[in-house]
Every structure is written in structure tokens, then in C-alpha cells.
Amino acid sequence: MTFELRADASAGEPDAPTPASDGASATATAPSTAHGESLPAAPPRDPWRRRYRRNLVLTDLASLIWVVYGTQLLWFGLGNAQLAAGRDSRISDLSYWAFSAILIVTWMWALAFVESRSDRVIGTGSAEYVRIADASFRLFGAVAIIAFLTQIDVARGYLLVSLPLGIIVLFFTRWMWRQWLVVQRSRGRYSANVLLVGSLHSVTQLASEFARTPSAGYRVVGACVPNGRIADTIAGTVIPIMGHVGDVTRALQATGADTVAVTSADELPADKVKQISWSLEAGRQHLVLAPSIVDIAGPRLHTRPVAGLPLIHVETPKFSRGQSFLKRSVDLLAASVGVLLLSPLLVFLMIAVRLSSEGPVFFRQTRVGFRGREFTMIKFRSMVVNAEDLLAQLAAQQRDAGNEVLFKMKNDPRVTPIGRIMRKYSLDELPQLFNVLGGSMSLVGPRPPLPSEVAVYADHVHRRFLAKPGITGLWQVSGRSSLSWEESVRLDLSYVENWTLLGDFVILGRTARAALAPGETAA
């Protein structure tokens, strides 16, 4: 979790190159640290923010032209339709061709006004989409108010089609750009070059978090730590140590970093952090404060300046009756529709399991759910009948697999041929829809653990029982069997403490995509 503070109020990036960003800077005399050690010369800057923002402007404009003029042609045809104005209105003889042009220009301005193309919101998270929807609704609300005050009768159908269609098309084009950006960032491009500053432990932890989520757009190029030496690197990485925490300015020049991420360190008093912020190049270099708290979602964070101190308020997790009612309503509706639509497939799978191997069609297993209560989870049987008897022998072979609590095994010999196909596409989990209808599970939630797993839980892990277990969840769409036990717990707790309905829809979408392009399944 990071908080970003700009070097000035400007969110943009100047078009004119500065002396520090031209090609000559790469061949300039290399700076040295306070200890006299020579730092390598900085690479030239890559103005990717400006390029990416320009691409978004072009596709936003093309999308709005297509939507607004397309709606006009659909509603009025090729004729020169005029806006209907009242008797007292000063506006007359304004065609919809001109009104559509004004609407497009104003829509583009609204998207720029809310900074929907800012590099702070692109690439990850929902803020980019929220800003697009917010700007669009505010714009059309303003149009309705202005039309009422000026007694101009704008065709309601024209507006009612343009607004939702425009938002949908903008969402889609931004989503396409985001997929492209994720690919670029996985290759180390279109990312902020970050210089980490802080204690060795906190710097190592933050570097690990950034490496785990390259889509966030932070590429670590160096670090300054107490008593750091130029020849060293952060343990377990190739990230070079650029000197002491007092060598930040020289390290920025040497690495070409455009972002400084400050973590915890006794050698960094408040005045020193302020000096670092003052030394940053306005509009091009940014300061990020990374407190030692992770897996806290944005809605629970509030900043409040008090006596010049930027206090960060972290709300405790809230599980209101309204949220519970909303989640349960969505579960009931979606599960009912799912059972109805998938009933032919469910019948086919029942017959296939029955004919392919001996034993019952369904596999019933005791799991631990909401508030630690046990329940019976239903799945299509995908293993041989004596699978439980073989578990102890196989588990002994997997103790060094990286997860000391969960049993996971590739190419499990207990899986039947039809079971392997069902697991590949997660079809064996479809009967859990009946668990959802019965109220013991949810569509999205933490993984339902076995009682034997709960017996070895640490105290904090029991917080996952504050939510109903899910058919799918963050654990399932973030690596499944490749995750370690600590990562599985972290994802489950992050979901429980930061639940949102929009987040559930995102997880369901990722689950559907994973089912269409199946990979590894979990035990």
C-alpha cells in the first residue's frame, strides 16, 4: 500500500525536455556519494506518461464521436434535426450536429477535469473507471439542468442512449489499453522507475511487493539504505544499493528514477523527508510514502492534515447489515439463475460421473464456514472412492511443496479421467451453487477450509471466518495451487477486510476467464 505525494500540484508532465532528461545527461560526469563512491551515469528518461495519456485522448475522442454521432444518426437519421426551444429561450436554430459536437468536446473536458487519464489511476484498481462514470453522470446532469433553465427540449432518448453507451465504450477501450499496459509492464516498460529509501528490511519487503504486482507500474531501479555501499545489492534481488539514505539526490541522478518511495527508517526524520520532496523535479519526479501496513483497501483509508502532519486514518473492517443483505441478495439471484441455466450440464455431468467409475455422484465433505461453523460442502466426485484413505500417504510426499497446511499435488493419481476434465474447467464445483442457495456458502469468499486445517490455524487466521466461504475468491484467481500458505491467508484476509460488491464482480469475471482458459486446479 502506498500514498503518493506529487512534487507540486501539477499532475501532468511538461512537454519540454529538461537538461536532466536529454541524451547528454547519460554521458555527463557521474555523481558521487557523500562517502566519495562513484555512482553510474543515469539512463535517459522515457516520457511514457505523456505518450500513454495521448493514446487515451485519441481513443476517448474516437469512442465519443462514434457513440454520440452514432446515437444521433440512429435517433434522427441523416436530416438536419433542430433542438426544440421554448418561446422565451434565447437559443434557436441549433442543429443536433452542432449540439453533438459541443457534447463531445465537453465530455472530453470532463474526463480531463477529473484526471481520468492520470498515471496515478491507470493500470490497476477501479479508480480510473469510477472517474469516467463520475464525470459522465455529472456532465449529463449538468446538461439536463441547463436544458431546463434555458427551456431547451433535448430529445430524452438521444441522451438516455448516449450516456450508458458512452460509458460502456469508454470502459471497454480503457480496459483494452489496460491489458496492453499490463503486458508492457510485465516487460519492464511503461512503469515508474522507483528509488527505495529506508531500512534494509522495509526496502526488501517493498521491493518484493512491487515485484509481485508489476501491473501497478513500479519498477525498482535502486535503493538507499543506512550504511549502504555501492557495490552491494538487496538480498535475493539484482536491485543495486546506491548508497546511504542521505545520498538520495545523487542516486536519483544516477538511476534516472522518477519516483522516490520512502519506507521506515530511523535515519529519516520528518525534516529529511521534507528535504527529499523539495529536491524533486516539479512535474517529473514524485514522492511516495509507504507505511508498514499492507492489504488495506482504499475505502478504508482517509488522510487528514492536522497541524501540518498528514495523518492516515485506517478504518476497522465493517460488516453492516446492509452489506450482508446486499451480498446475500446477489448470491441468491445469481445462484438461482445459474442452477436454472446450467441444469442440462448438471444432469449430463451426473450421468457421466455415474457411468465412468464406481461410487456416488456427489462428494460430500465437512468444511468450516461462517463464524467457524461446520457445514457439508457438495462437489461432483472427481476422485476414486478411497481417495481419503490415500491422502495421508500422498501428503507425506508433499511436505516440502511450499505449503505446510494445504495439501496440493499436480497430477493427483486419485483423480478419475472424467474428474480430470471436470477439474480442468472447475465443473466439479458447480454443485456448490446449492450450498449458496442454502446459505452456507457465497459465490465469492475465502476458501472453505477443512477442520484439520483450522486446528493448526494461528489466531489471526480465524478472521477469515468473518465472511462466508466462497465457490471462488481471491485465492482461486491469484495462483491457486502455486500459492504458499502465507500468500493464501493474506489474500483471504484481504478479501474479508476489504469487501466490496464491485470487487466480487471483478473476481467472478476473472474466474470466468480462468475457466475458459483453464490452468492448474486446487485440491
Compile the SSE list and pairings.
Blueprint lengths: L2 E4 L41 H29 L7 E2 L10 H18 L13 H23 L2 E2 L2 H31 L5 E6 L2 H13 L5 E7 L23 H8 L3 E4 L7 H10 L6 E4 L11 E6 L2 E6 L6 H36 L5 E7 L5 E7 L6 H11 L19 H8 L7 H7 L3 E3 L6 H4 L15 E3 L1 H4 L7 H13 L3 H16 L7
Parallel strand pairs: 4-5, 4-6, 6-7, 12-13
Antiparallel strand pairs: 1-7, 2-3, 8-9, 10-11
Helix pairs in contact: 1-2, 1-4, 2-3, 3-4, 8-11
What does this protein structure show overall?
It is a single chain. Helices cover 44% and strands 12% of the residues. 31% of the residues are buried. Mean pLDDT is 79; it is low at 1-30 and 519-523. The longest helix is centred in the middle third of the chain and has 36 residues, at 321-356. The chain has a 5-stranded mixed sheet, with helices on both faces. It has a two-stranded antiparallel ribbon with strand order 2-3. Helix 1 (48-76) runs antiparallel to helix 2 (96-113), helix 1 (48-76) runs antiparallel to helix 4 and helix 2 (96-113) packs across helix 3 (127-149). The chain has 523 residues and is an alpha/beta fold.
Question: Can I get a quick summary?
Answer:
With 523 residues, the protein is of the alpha/beta class. The chain is 44% helix and 12% strand. The chain folds into three domains: 3-40 and 189-294, Rossmann fold, CATH 3.40.50; 49-186, no CATH class; 321-516, no CATH class.
